[in-house]
């Protein structure tokens, strides 16, 4: 969870560094909460490189922290899932990460998956000539990375504010938009397809920048068109990060998914199976709970797994509760049913309901 601030800060860029939680501990040491898992893992690789195989694959699932403004799909603490390959500069390693990412999302069941892909080297070569004393090429890239979140005018204004002339700001955007696939990126895409990633899932996006400074080559991110809440994961090649920490050259490529955002999307797209609690019927509670409690006792005596809603509440809330928990039937005994010594049994799968005696309901539930 904690790293020395000198390990964390300065690796992501000025924009990302602002979202790192940093503080002094009781011993006066500068510490930071883990912003991502890439930099801490690079530190571990640098520390234990002689004990690890030359080509090392790893996955990690852990919480990370961002000093961000909480909103839908954005959290100050969330679970991040990482996969990385260390020790290989081959485009096959890049393709492996891309394919693993695609199939991880596909196997969850998302209806459409788009992998936006670009090459950081293309961005550097396209934008290097526009750097100024107040805006180096990394700063320009960080601003251009906002094109998918802000309109073009806002991005232009930010570039001008950083010191670019209006002419050069427009020229910088035009240079990025006109970029073509590099031979390296073409090879990565072709090998990704050979690994099973469909052609329609890969989208060359020349303005994609990935705001973190440590990327050096291929970069990509995951988009779910049916749930337009931004990127669900992002990554790429970061060949120089371990060198910055240790002086040793260990190339690396990887991806990080935001697990909480993935779950949120899967839930709203109805991809998560309803929880099976074991209860076959939910007995609802009205203002007078006595008929419901007595009915629950009868059902349990007949070995029918019955759950009683814990308090009187609106009937629609009780029905939603049953639906969320995957309970197949709901038994209702409101004032009208109680007056007639009857119950209403609702089948949550079909939506049909009928008013019958408790004995008849017991027979249905016992089947």
Automatic annotation (TrEMBL):
* Listed Gene3D superfamilies: Anticodon-binding domain, Bira Bifunctional Protein, Domain 2
ATP-binding listed as a keyword: yes
Q: Which UniProt keywords apply?
A: Aminoacyl-tRNA synthetase, ATP-binding, Ligase, Nucleotide-binding, Protein biosynthesis
Residue ranges annotated for the Aminoacyl-transfer RNA synthetases class-II family profile domain, each copy included: 56-310
The Gene Ontology biological process terms listed for this entry are:
histidyl-tRNA aminoacylation
Q: What is its EC number?
A: 6.1.1.21
Q: GO: which molecular function terms?
A: ATP binding; histidine-tRNA ligase activity
Its GO CC terms are: cytoplasm
Pfam families attached here? HGTP_anticodon, tRNA-synt_His
**Chain sites annotated for binding L-histidine:** 36-38, 66, 80, 84, 210, 214-215
PROSITE patterns, per the entry: AA_TRNA_LIGASE_II
SUPFAM superfamilies xrefs = Class II aaRS ABD-related (SSF52954), Class II aaRS and biotin synthetases (SSF55681)
Q: What class of enzyme is it?
A: ligase
Q: Which reaction does it catalyse?
A: tRNA(His) + L-histidine + ATP = L-histidyl-tRNA(His) + AMP + diphosphate + H(+)
* Assigned protein family: Belongs to the class-II aminoacyl-tRNA synthetase family.
Q: Supply the PANTHER family for this chain.
A: HISTIDINE--TRNA LIGASE, HISTIDYL-TRNA SYNTHETASE
Could you identify this protein by its name?
Histidine--tRNA ligase
Q: Which organism is it from?
A: Candidatus Beckwithbacteria bacterium CG23_combo_of_CG06-09_8_20_14_all_47_9
